[in-house]
């Protein structure tokens, strides 16, 4: 299960990185810095979810904490990135 969460997080990060590169010219430095901060926040949240699963706690418990931790920044069941473009 941890591998699935880690793989999902990596695939999501790669997809958003590609999208950011494609849109790079359209954003101000401030907007890029805000996007970077959101990515860092979500990376921390996903790392905490991985540690939760590795600790032996239930998937349900870890996913619930993931949803709480990413509220306002992430979207969807597994805390994807929300861009404010």
What does the model show?
The model has no long low-confidence stretch (mean pLDDT 80). It is elongated and about 45 Å long. It has helices spanning 2-23, 29-54, 59-69, and strands spanning 74-75, 80-81. α2 packs antiparallel against α3. β1 (74-75) and β2 (80-81) form a beta hairpin. The protein contains 3 helices and 2 strands; from the N terminus they run αααββ. It has 85 residues and is mainly α. The protein is 69% helix and 5% strand. Strands 1-2 form a two-stranded antiparallel sheet. It has one domain (2-81).
Chain-wise SSE layout:
Blueprint: H1 2-23, H2 29-54, H3 59-69, E1 74-75, E2 80-81
Antiparallel strand pairs: 1-2
Helix pairs in contact: 1-2, 2-3
Provide a quick synopsis of the model.
This protein is mainly α and about 80 residues long.
H and E string? HHHEE
Helix content class = 55-70%
Major sheet details: 2 strands, antiparallel
- The percentage of residues in β strands lies in under 5%
Can you tell me the overall shape? elongated
H/I helix tally: 3
Unreliable spans are none
The tally of strands reads: 2
Radius of gyration: 14 Å
Class from secondary-structure proportions: mainly alpha
For the largest sheet, list the strands in their spatial order.
Answer: 1-2
What is the number of domains? 1
Key descriptive features of the protein:
two-stranded antiparallel sheet, 85 residues, mainly alpha, 2 strands, 69% helix
């Amino acid at each position: 299960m941890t591998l699935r969460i880690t793989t999902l997080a990596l695939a999501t990060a790669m997809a958003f990185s590609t999208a950011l590169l494609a849109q790079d010219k359209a954003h101000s430095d401030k907007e890029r810095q805000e996007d970077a901060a959101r990515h860092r926040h979500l990376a921390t949240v996903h790392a905490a979810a991985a540690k939760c699963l590795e600790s032996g706690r239930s998937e349900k418990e870890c996913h619930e904490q993931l949803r709480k931790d990413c509220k306002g920044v992430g979207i969807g069941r597994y805390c994807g990135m929300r861009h404010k473009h």
